[in-house]
Amino acid sequence: MALTNATRLLRRIPLAILAVLLCAAPAQRLRAQDSGIPVGSKAPAATLETLDGQPADLATWVGKEPVFIEFWATWCANCKQLEPQLLQLQKRYAGKMRFIGVSVSVNQSPELVKRYVAAHALQGEQLYDRKGFATDAYEVPATSFVVVINAKGRVVYTGLGGKQNLAAAIAKAF
């Protein structure tokens, strides 16, 4: 039975659509993130406070050394999922990169954060974003948002969620 040109064309369309989708899939993964501070931008300063209530500013570290920032909360399941990986990397990169935890002020206090940090042996600077200045400056979409900044003060990675490859993210800063 001979196929007409129209039938041949209809049989090729699904393959053509599949080919287009397969080619477009890698491009989708490589595009810029949908939210958060854009990769490549200059990391902004932001006023926060220490867990003891003293003023602190991200400008103290940004642009001087590589910096890893996680916006987190004690109640965040994704943050807890990242924690074992983060603890290993804090040991591995001690003295080479500044680790900063920025705890958001939603449903937690500095005292609660301080207890959590001690109980979980979190390293690095632990700051509290009482007024949301850092959250706004970094356009944080949710907790478990990670920002990696190189020594020149440029954002080289942003990510969200509990399944981030933090080692690969950190490698971008060096």
**Main pleated sheet:** 7 strands, mixed
Q: How many independent structural domains? A: 2
Radius of gyration (Å): 21 Å
CATH class of the largest domain: Alpha Beta
Helix content: 25-40%
Strand order of the largest sheet: 2-1-5-4-3-6-7
CATH topology of the largest domain: Glutaredoxin
Provide the CATH architecture of the largest domain: 3-Layer(aba) Sandwich
Distance between the termini: 64 Å
Number of strands: 7
Strand content: 15-25%
Query: Count of DSSP helices?
Result: 5
Q: Supply the helix-strand structural class.
A: alpha/beta
The CATH superfamily name of the largest domain is: Glutaredoxin
In the predicted model, the low-confidence regions spanning at least 5 consecutive residues are 1-32
Assembly classification = single chain
Overall pLDDT: 85
Spell the H/E element sequence: HEEEHEHEHEEH
Shape: globular
Can you describe this structure?
It is a single chain. The chain has helices at residues 5-30, 77-92, 110-120, 133-137, 166-171; strands spanning 47-50, 55-57, 67-72, 98-104, 125-129, 145-149, 155-160. With 174 residues, the chain is α/β, with parallel strands linked by helices. It is globular and about 35 Å long. The protein is built from five helices and seven strands; from the N terminus they run H-E-E-E-H-E-H-E-H-E-E-H. Mean pLDDT is 85; it is low at 1-32.
